[in-house]
Amino acid sequence: MLVLGIETSCDETGAAVVRADGEVLSDIVQSQVKLHAPYGGVVPELASRDHLRNGRPVVTAALAQAGVAARDLAGIAVTCRPGLTGALLVGVELAQGLAFGLEKPVVGVDHLVGHLLSPFLRFSGLTQPDPPSFPFVALLASGGHTALYRVDGPELASISELGATRDDAAGEAFDKVAKLLGLGYPGGPVIDRLAKEGDPEAVDLVWPMRRRGSLEFSFSGLKADVMRWVMKHGRPGDDHVLRNLCAAFQRRVVDTLVEKSVAAALAQKVSFIVIAGGVAANRELRERAAARANENGLCLVVPPFRACTDNAAMIAYAGAKRLERGEDDTGHVETSPRTLLPRVTRKGRGKRPAHL
Ligand code: KG4
Ligand code: ZN
Asked: 22 and 60 in contact (C-beta within 8 Å)?
């Protein structure tokens, strides 16, 4: 079964052809990073217009690279939530138009389910870890989302949120701190590089949500603490002070993500931890997570970087699982800015369920 995936939920236009067993035949990603860089973040209107420009060429390239004729596809999978409404609509209309023309079924995919199933993708010519077995605990850390999930199977009903961020996502915190320090967008890779040469103990920043037992995250307090530091000491130049500040910030984000992921895996009595999302590219996060997983007898699975960042292959795979179950959304793919995964964490402050 061959499925074409289309992804336009944020600032990447993606198309991929994937087999139902996870084999990736093609995976094309057209990034909009340069388009949004001057604004320090994604501008929704610009994103939609760029998806409109790139949608058709990206799909054509994905089919050509896979050597697959459109008529040989079993169906089309498209991200329909969560994401920027205008951006999602472009991808969904592209998918529906194609499906209509080809008389193929189309299924909508929740972007977060795509990320959570990304460890099952198989890229030829790439060394990658064996996929996890169900059930596993997954940390999804990207520019838009940060949450821990228990994943019992590939379908939406088998995935439950264990805790999420109350405010900023981890990647968003990297991006905002980088902007504050004049380091450009996206912030993760540049902070990662600078932190490598800094001393994380040299600057004393707050530890986010260290409360024992809580699987919720909060990064806005840490971001505010960096802001307070900058107001007091001034914005550091390109020197060891900047590297120390980046190292301290990154250490706090990484330790928080890793400790909560390990605690979640132990509490859920699972053997596998998966880390997905763009922040999984972080060198310190990978190293620290590997060490802590090892100490606790857990098996860590971090998909290759191209599977961690936004891509259409994970959408095609999640869609293939839906098509295999005989599901079909033809004619009624709905978009939404929200995930369908049940949330246990509310944004902002307020009363929490007792177990959190
Ligand atoms: O998954 P992704 O490509 O897009 C979504 O947000 O869905 O993730 C992008 C995020 C950005 O916030 C970026 O700063 C962060 O991932 N990121 C990193 C690193 N590389 C990318 N964060 C920390 N360290 C990195 N090396
Ligand atoms: Zn994403």
From this structure: no
